Amino acid sequence: MNHINFKNITEFSKAQHLPEPENPLFSIGNKTLNADEVHNCVASNEEVSYTNQFYLISLKNIVSGEIIYGRTKYDCSTGTLLFSAPNQTYTVKDIVVSSESWFIAFHEDFIRGLDIQKRMKKYNFFNYNVNEALHLSPKEEKIIKLIFKGIEAEYNNNQDEFSKGIILSHLEALLKYADRFYKRQFLNRKEINKALFTRFKEILDAYFDSNQLEEKGIPTVEWLAGQLGVSHRYMRDTIKAETGKTAIDQINWYLVEEAKNLLLSPNTSISETAYKLGFEYPQYFSRLFKKKTGMSPKEYIANPSNN
Fold first, then answer.
1. Strand 48-52 to strand 2-6: parallel, antiparallel, or no bridges (unpaired)?
2. Quick check: 102 pLDDT over 70?
3. Distance between CA atoms of 148 and 169, rounded to whole angstroms?
4. What is the DSSP string of the chain?
């Protein structure tokens, strides 16, 4: 499998058959394909992986093909907004796109030291796997395209002291809309969310049943996300949207429910229960149990019907 590492935006623009960027740290471009071009716009059968040394936002209508990120496959859909942070790698095969595609590429240095650089950290979608892209409704796609066009107009205007500030204002608006639309997507994907949460609980059950809690300790959010084949940020947001609680809260509640069963088993001490559930120190277990149930493990053993 070939691997291409775009070290700068100029290399990326050339590969996309876009004009050389006006600014080496920022570029925007779009391509509109006619019917013949769409028919012929197919990558080779060989898989090719890409890594960018800059941020990339792209709006594409993908008809068919595969985009693979990590262990997961991208869910093809029209009107799709993709986000990639520096040093992320993705693989493509036989991609066919239709209509117009937009690209915004910007280097970390373009936003360094600015407020937007700090706010970028709150936008989880830059850390999502590619298959967790944002699927836009027609109305949402229209809004996003207008922002792309606004950035393009300013980018192609004669550069002056206001140019960068105006471009950054448009870029921040795009990111805020994307954040809003992602939250809508999570709410609209109840069945997918429910299935992921069900699988989340099944993994915890299997982990407990195979005594891995006692042998390896309490599983991390990152490990659980890996078992689900998604990023931990995506898993966190999905579980929060489905249950109203964080993934860590769900793990803790699972431990408490299993603790209730173990504590009522004959000849099982509080310390033994703590160790079986992966706690290195029994006092940490007792503290969590009381926080979640309102009583200590000892009080629960004496009055299990109260909880």
1. parallel
2. yes
3. 12
4. -EEEEE-SHHHHHHHTTPPPPSBTTEEEEEEE--HHHHHH----SS-EEEEESSEEEEEEEEEEEEEEETTEE----SSEEEEE-TT-EEEEEEEEEEEEEEEEEE-HHHHTTSHHHHHHTT-GGGGS-GGG-EE--HHHHHHHHHHHHHHHHHHTSPP-TTHHHHHHHHHHHHHHHHHHHHHHHHHH-HHHHHHHHHHHHHHHHHHHHTTHHHHH-SPPHHHHHHHHTS-HHHHHHHHHHHHSS-HHHHHHHHHHHHHHHHHTSTT--HHHHHHHTT-SSHHHHHHHHHHHHSS-HHHHHH-GGG-
Q: Measure Cα distances from 295 to 206, 256, 280 in Å.
A: 28, 12, 21
- What is the C-alpha to C-alpha distance for residues 183 and 29, in angstroms, rounded to an integer? 27
Strand partners, 32: 100
At 67-94, the pLDDT tens digits run: 765 545 555 555 588 888 888 777 777 7
Residue 213 pLDDT greater than 70, yes or no: yes
The CA-based angle 59-61-65, given to 5 degrees, is 115
Is the distance from CB of 193 to CB of 244 less than 8 angstroms?
no
C-beta separation of 53 from 59 below 8 A: no
Residues in the chain: 307
| Selection from 61, 100, 58 nearest residue 77 by Cα | 61
The single residue listed with the structure tokens 């407990």 is 208
Kindly list the structural domains of the chain, giving each domain's residue range(s) and its CATH number in brackets, ordered by start.
Answer: 2-188 (2.60.120), 191-306 (1.10.10.60)
